[in-house]
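The instructor's notes for this session suggest beginning with a concrete chain rather than abstract definitions. Hand out the sequence below and ask the class to guess, before any prediction is shown, which regions might be ordered.
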Amino acid sequence: MSQQPPSIQKRELRARFSNLRVSRRSGVFGLAEIIGLAGALLILVLVVVSYLYFLVPARSRRATLELERARLQSQLRNSQDVLVRGQSTDATVHNITQSLDAFETTGLVDANRGRMSLYDSLNSLIRKNGLRNTSGPTYTPLEPVGSKASPGSRAANTKWQSIYPGIAISLTVEGPYQNLRRFVRDLETSKQFIIINTVELERATESNTASDSGAGGASLVSLRLEMTTYFQRGGAENISGD
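After discussion, reveal the predicted structure:
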């Protein structure tokens, strides 16, 4: 077989390379490429469909469930707060009831016994502090709130009424100022349950001052007191029996 000249061989090689490039250019969208492109488009469509029909609803459901969880947690906290407040209210009511029972049984006394003790206590404190009784004491029964007032009761004393029966006391004494201070202190610290509602101080009249000026020469002061005392419930019928 005869060999071709080198120049001919080069031309043939160039022709083959040219044909190869042309065939590749003309065959970019061949069957394999079309199948691959179709598969890629199908996968893209599946991804979009999955996102729209699965992921988006799942996210929406998750957001809804989170809101529902927050609402339920808020309701739970509110219920717990209501329960705690209810327990605190029950404890407060129980403490108030116990305190009220203790006050009625130990702080207050029976009306008949307390009335006699009050008379004795006032007279004893007046003598103890060297005071002179110039007016009273006057005692006005106080009926419990809601009960029918007795015929001898004074309407002006209704402002001192309470749920307990009691007595309103009006008293005026004279003496040195220091003795009057001790008298008021003794009233406030006495075992008798006494509430001082009004205190009025004024210089004693000249006639009284002159008659008592020999006792140390101290100027006398007049003290007027409006007081109330209360007794246990159930004994109101014994108050008016002086």
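Then share the key points. Confidence is low (pLDDT under 50) at residues 152-156, 207-216. The longest helix spans residues 31-107.
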